[in-house]
Amino acid sequence: MFGKKNTPSESILILGLGGIGLYLAKRLVHEGYAVTIIEASSQLISRADESLDARLITGSAMSIECWKEANAESMDFMIAVTDNDAVNMLSAMIAHGFGIEQKISRVRSLEYGQKDSLLQADDLKVDLFIHPEELAAQEIVRLIKRTAGDEIIDVALGKMQAMAVQVDDDSQFAHKTLIEIARAYNDIAFRVVAIARGISTIIPTGKTEVLPHDQILIMAGTEELPRLMELTGIKKQHRLRVMIVGGGLVGSRIAQLLGKTVRVKLLEKDKERATELASLLPDTEILLGDGSDKDVLSAGGLADMDTFISATGENETNIMTCMLVKHIVENQGTTQHKIKTISLVNKEEYVVLASTSGSDIAINKKILAGNEIFTFIRRSEMLSVSHMHGFDAEVVDLIAAPKSTITKKTLANLDGKLAEHIIVGSVFRDGKWETAVGETQVNAGDRAIVICDSLYLKNVRELFLN
């Protein structure tokens, strides 16, 4: 065993600079961690060197010499996110040998990291298994089983909820500032905490005007949700007919999870894969064809569907296919219900664009995995971190520390620059959740739900914890 050295600040060793590795590295560096990366591809190293303030080592994740060069014995966390499951799991055992306390491994296979797995996490010395594809599939299934809203997530153990709503031309919120909306509906305790517009996410102030085609994020108590749904024109709709384009890991897993409870059609353009899926998914109707083709979609029964999911491995295909579906439905008017479109978007820069074009919800597995890892790393400070799909924003559940900056002023008197990126949605006091307003004073020990731009988690921590 190698000796473990005490270090004054937390250091993280990342193995692999693929999509998830690079995303994690950028985010962790921004949060102030000392990051070292081992990557075999000199091309990926060169690309990362242009934009990343981290120590980069070219070499194999299995090379002990590379680990020694990285000063592995001084690391607090090891995150293995190479494209090889076996390497990622074996890396946890190597990290254990160097005395790294916290080991995180990304695996695609569901044969590992489950309660009934032959080899458990303790056997492999893994503290946290990350299954990005499984996270994406589970999240999409959760959203399908919701009966209302483009998206609703529970926060604070279900006591508060954040709901995403598309603003139509005839919406009661259109062309009104948030101050005007609050005055008009002052009998309902809610707050608009984020707006997706074009390719940007806006953390609003009272003077921000809501425009048609905006996607707005509303925070409210669970008991207020029915009235808000009525106000925003959202109707409960059970989604029982689902079409999926793409039979990869995510698409096939969604079909498997939905099982016999939902009627599922899956379009796959590769004949060999379609044949394989037909035997793997007995409860799913497998169709051979290109799901981005209008005629194929129509022949496959798009008109009968109430949910459409594009889960191919290509960002542009997923976004454009959802746009095509919306166009077909609007022009033909053949569906009995409003169809919900969900796209898998692997490029985080496209998430907001997707949600404001043709996708009601855009899912990014890198962001889901990143939040899972970040919540694990910061679990002593933050109760949870959730990403709002379609917004470049995070919902953070945390407790204000004594003498922290947030406790010294009312929300209206906090730093004006931060107000453009951070908003406190609600505060728990006197045994109940209260919608936060400008005059709200957060006290030490108060639990709060905060919404922030994705790159401002560090600032939230500084406000609440320093």
TrEMBL record:
Extract the SUPFAM superfamilies matched here: NAD(P)-binding Rossmann-fold domains (SSF51735), TrkA C-terminal domain-like (SSF116726)
Q: Where is the RCK N-terminal domain?
A: 9-130, 239-363
**GO cellular component, as recorded:** plasma membrane
Signal sequence annotation: none
Q: Name one Pfam family in it.
A: TrkA_N
Q: Where are the transmembrane segments?
A: none
- Gene3D superfamilies per the record? NAD(P)-binding Rossmann-like Domain (3.40.50.720), Regulator of K+ conductance, C-terminal domain (3.30.70.1450)
Domain RCK C-terminal span(s) in chain numbering: 150-234, 383-466
Keyword Hydrolase recorded? no
- One MF term in GO for this entry? potassium ion transmembrane transporter activity
Entry keyword set:
Ion transport, NAD, Potassium, Potassium transport, Transport
According to UniProt, the name of this protein is Trk system potassium uptake protein TrkA
